[in-house]
Amino acid sequence: KYERRKSKKIIAKTIEATPLSPAQDTSSFCPFEDLKKNNNINTAKGRATNVINKKITVAKQLILNTKMKVSEISDALCFSDEYNFSNTFKSKIGVSPLAFKKLEGKLSDN
Questions:
Q1: Which of 89, 98, 107, 108 has the most CB atoms less than 10 A away?
Q2: CA–CA separation, 84 vs 87, rounded Å?
Q3: Are 41 and 54 in contact (CB under 8 A)?
Q4: Nearest C-alpha neighbor of 31 from the set 47, 44, 18, 46
Q5: Do the Cβ atoms of 8 and 66 come closer than 8 Å?
């Protein structure tokens, strides 16, 4: 439960939304729906890219600051599945989510 609350705070802070109370159900929570609707970018491609970039920013913070599994992060960020999340993450960052965590861990140890 602590990790779930922590992830909600990170997500809310990153997308500049109001944090959820710990009592709220997250099964249907997708913090990026409002971003899709209220985005000032004129094209659908631009809106989608902006949403994905926000999700990847949040994912990096969750990977580094929580003990959540990749599948849990995928669910929290409303990806269709873990495979889709990992592929999107790798295409944007250049490494898989697990490799990113290992790489960042090594860098912070130095």
A1: 89
A2: 5
A3: no
A4: 18
A5: no
Long-range contacts of 83-86 (CB under 8 A, 24+ apart): 85/59
Q: What does the pLDDT read at residue 19? A: 39
Q: Residue 80 has what DSSP assignment?
A: S
One-letter amino acid at 19 equals: P
Cβ(55)–Cβ(77) below 8 Å: yes
82-93 and 44-65 are packed helices; what angle lies between their axes, rounded to 10 degrees? 100
Q: Which residue type sits at 8? A: K
Q: Is 47 exposed, middle or buried (0-12, 13-18, 19+ CB in 10 A)?
A: middle
Please list, in sequence order, all residues whose beta carbon lies within 8 angstroms of the beta carbon of residue 55, skipping any fewer than 6 positions away: 32, 77, 78, 79, 88
Note the pLDDT tens digit of each residue in 24-76. Answer: 344 445 655 555 555 555 566 677 788 888 899 999 999 988 889 999 999 99
